[in-house]
Design the sequence.
């Protein structure tokens, strides 16, 4: 088991032919993946991570809820309630946990459920926690059943129960823990078992960011990176960033390289749009997979309803990635709707991809 980092801080359906994802198709634009790359999980990125609520742009409601929880806990001299953060990847769940720790004046241990391989790992982590410390577990929906069961008394009564020996002679011993706060993060709140979910005092969702919030984030990051950028340059990157700060910052870095090498000028809207066209990031932030999925739905299924398995076959992506990564953004921008009978493509998506929406086709026939 590895602690990633520890901070001392202040339906039935016809299947379409699977597209040959031999990648002779236009290449996947990994620039638009919301998951963090190894590099982005490293220390280098810490300089652009906001360290205080005052520097954290967006998620206004969440910040307010947490601010109240922090002030109340501090006034009562208590630890913060356990907190579950859910929402699509790349929206700042880890950053939020680190800011929480800094605001409470405690440290934060960061790990992820797949890194907790045995019950011993989770017990070791819990026992090592200092008073008031925050334990951040990413992808908490992936915890093993055994690890979850160890967490229940730890969350409720700050104790772990360990069994010594086997069979009839086995004995249970309780170890008292320091009072701590568990911050769980998940992209799939619905996959969490209810006993685990019920033990979080606060359950909060992170939302996609609005373009103006992403513009502010890009301007802030550009300043840290000492990169000259105009407001319209930031806005051009923002609209292609899928509502996700991690993607916005990644695109900014690529546009910065382009500006330096090709344009030898500050980043403005023209430079940003030329660079992002070169990187095949479409003006709405759609990548090859989004476009392929929507096109198959339109061309082969008249825009839907289409089941998730068909969408998976159309793109070569697994259903979980489609549900967690692709669909939320397409629904957010109003290109896809989920109905009880399956997914349906909207008129805006038809237009964006250069197809005539079904209603317009009908009116032409009338
Ligand atoms: N960098 C990444 N996410 C951010 C946010 N929400 N505010 C400011 N800078 C950020």
Sequence:
């Amino acid at each position: 088991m590895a602690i990633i980092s520890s901070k001392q801080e202040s339906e039935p359906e016809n299947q379409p032919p699977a597209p040959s994802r031999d990648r002779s198709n236009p290449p996947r634009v990994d620039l638009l993946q919301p998951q963090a790359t190894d590099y982005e999980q490293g220390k280098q990125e810490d300089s652009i991570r906001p360290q205080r609520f005052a520097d954290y742009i967006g998620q206004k409601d969440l910040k307010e809820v947490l601010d109240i929880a922090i002030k109340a806990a501090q006034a009562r001299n208590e630890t913060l309630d356990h907190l579950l953060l859910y929402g699509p990847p790349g929206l700042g769940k880890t950053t939020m946990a680190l800011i929480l720790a800094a605001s409470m004046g405690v440290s934060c241990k960061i790990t992820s459920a797949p890194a907790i391989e045995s019950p011993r790992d989770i017990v070791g982590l819990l026992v090592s926690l200092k008073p008031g410390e925050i334990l951040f577990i990413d992808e908490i929906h992936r915890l093993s059943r055994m690890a979850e069961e160890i967490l229940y008394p730890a969350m409720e009564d700050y104790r772990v129960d360990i069994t010594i020996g086997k069979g009839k002679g086995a004995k249970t011993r309780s170890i008292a823990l320091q009072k701590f706060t568990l911050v769980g993060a998940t992209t799939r709140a619905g996959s969490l078992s209810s006993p685990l979910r019920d033990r979080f005092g606060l359950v909060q969702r992170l939302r996609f960011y609005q373009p103006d919030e992403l513009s502010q984030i890009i301007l802030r990051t550009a300043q840290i990176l000492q990169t000259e950028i105009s407001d319209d340059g930031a806005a051009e990157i923002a609209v292609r960033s899928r509502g996700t700060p991690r993607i916005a910052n990644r695109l900014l870095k690529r546009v910065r390289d382009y500006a330096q090498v090709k344009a030898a000028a500050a980043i403005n809207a023209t430079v940003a749009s030329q660079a992002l066209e070169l990187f095949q990031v479409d003006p709405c932030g759609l990548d090859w997979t989004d476009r392929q999925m929507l096109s198959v739905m339109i061309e082969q299924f008249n825009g839907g309803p289409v089941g998730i398995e068909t969408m998976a076959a159309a793109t070569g992506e697994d259903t979980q990635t489609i549900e967690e990564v692709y669909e939320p953004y397409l629904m957010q921008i109003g290109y896809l709707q989920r109905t009880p009978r399956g997914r349906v493509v909207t008129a805006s998506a038809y237009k964006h991809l250069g197809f005539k929406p079904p209603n317009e086709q009908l009116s032409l026939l009338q």
Summary: The chain has a mean pLDDT of 89.
